[in-house]
Each structure stands twice: as structure tokens, then as C-alpha cells.
Amino acid sequence: MTEAEARERLGELTTGYARTQAVFAVAELGIADLIANGTTSIDELASASGTRREPLFRLLRFLVGEGVFDLQDGVYSLTPVGELLRSDAPSSRRSGARMMGRFLPAWGEIVHSLRTGESGFEKAYGTRLFDHMTAYPEDGAIFDAVMTEVHGKESAPISRAYDFESFRCLADIGGGNGSLMIEILTGRPDLTGIVFDRPDVAERASERIAEAGLSGRLRAEAGDFFRAAPEGADGHLLRHIIHDWTDDECTIILEKCRAALPPDGRILVAEAVVPEGNEPALAKSFDLSMMVIAGGKERTEAEYRALYDRAGFELTRIVPTNCPVSLIEGRPRS
Description:
single chain; alpha/beta; 18 helices
């Protein structure tokens, strides 16, 4: 790499926040939805979005250059990238763009995270991520939508990757709206399940379970996984739960699972395993987000082995899937 190329690359790295916030602004304002519905001139877009013409024009000019929108003869249209900002797009990423922009102050506190090990989010907002979600329902709703956007496509690959028929009853710990358990139970008539989450989340999961016609085999149960895990399951599944917390906090969660599982039970943690070596990896990017936003971390195989050992489990195998996460299987240690 030449010095000029290095300067250019560093410039891209140090101004990335401008792109993040520009995309956040059009996602927050619903500009892609307006264009898709036929509002295509700058005057119409400014009026419909409650913005001023000149600032909006300058923002869209920048994003046309970035390939988010196209502009021909005064008419704006959506590129394939811009299509993903539509609320109704099958692979919509609008909620993710909104969340990243709203939580940018946490990234401004990354040095605090490096110096203290605490999340930048807590420094910026005065509270931890999930407490903030409870206190600010609008942000909580956006966060829930992001989880569906980002992780919704994982459900089918996870369901196909593992022999879930070997369980009698599977409990999804922190199972959210129940989408993963609905996917796993569909086509497996002998399997029953539990979706375990906070009371407000469990209530929403119950509605979705009923809509899926699985109320006879799948139930939502309210609780706190720091206090106890649900009884009656011979398998516990935790998707994108462990990476939200510190090692000490994860040990508590896993110990509660171990206490509720029978001796022949199994635990499955669905996370992106950080690979060894210096090559770029999505898990390494996720890891920074966990550090700054949630105060947790992504982990290597060795770190998962150590974490399981602390909580009284033996890591038996890691099962890859056709998505960025793997299933990290463990059994209670006798």
C-alpha cells in the first residue's frame, strides 16, 4: 500500500460516522418509503418528511454519491441499497440503520470502554442497554425490530443444523418473540417447547405462538434468567444471549440453566465464534459492538470452553450452520 493509498484508507475509516448518520437520518425520516410511494421530487420529499428543502437536498446529494439513491431529471429513485431502507422490504434494514444512528453516542465513549471495561452505552446514557429499552419503549421497539431483521434469517439454518428431535422439551432462554422456537417445532410434532423471557416479551411471544397454531406444544413463560431457568426441559437454547454479558454474568446465567436441566440435558449457545488469527471476521466486528453497546463480548472456542467449565458444563462440540452463528453444545459435568 502506498502512502497516498494509506491516507485515503485512513480518511475512509475516520469519516465513517458521517455515512452512518446520513443513512440514519433518511431511515428515521422514512425517505425510502416516501420515494417508493411516489414522492420523488425534493420539494415533495421535504414537505412530506417535515424537513427543509436545502438541507435535505444536500443530504440526498451525498447519499446519491454513496449509491443509496439515484437522481435523474429531478426525480429520486431507490437503488438496491436504498430498497433495503424501505419498511416493507423483505430484507429491510431500516430499523438497524435507525438503531445505529440513535446509539452513536455510545461509540463516542469507546475510550471509556477500553479504560474501564464498562460499556460506552452506560457512560453515554447513564444506564445499561436493556434497562434503557425498558425505560424508552420506542427504542425498545426499534431494538426488537433490529433483532428480527438481523437474526430472523438465522432461524431456518439453525433449525436445519441440529438434531432437535433428540430433545423431549426445548426451552429457548431469552427467546424473544418465539420465532426461533416456532421454526424448530414446525415439522417436529413430537417436540414441545418453552419461550422464556421478560414478562412483557413473553406476552408478545404468546400472541405469536397462538397465531402459529402451536399453543398446545409451545408456551411462553415469564422470568429472569439471572434468578432461575424454566423447569421441565431437557434442552436449553440461548441465541445471542451470552454475548450480551460479562463472563461473571454469563456464569450466573449458565449455572441457572444447569440447575434446571436434568443430568442428561444439553445446552446450546447460538453465537458467532471468533476465529483465531488476524484475518477480518464478522464476529470481530460483532465483538466491538458488544463491548461498546451491551458491555458483553463475542468469544473464541477456548473462551467458551473456559466459560462452560466455570458454570459446570463440558463443551462437547461446536456445530456450524449456514449463517454466521454456530451452536456450541454442552452437557452438565458430573
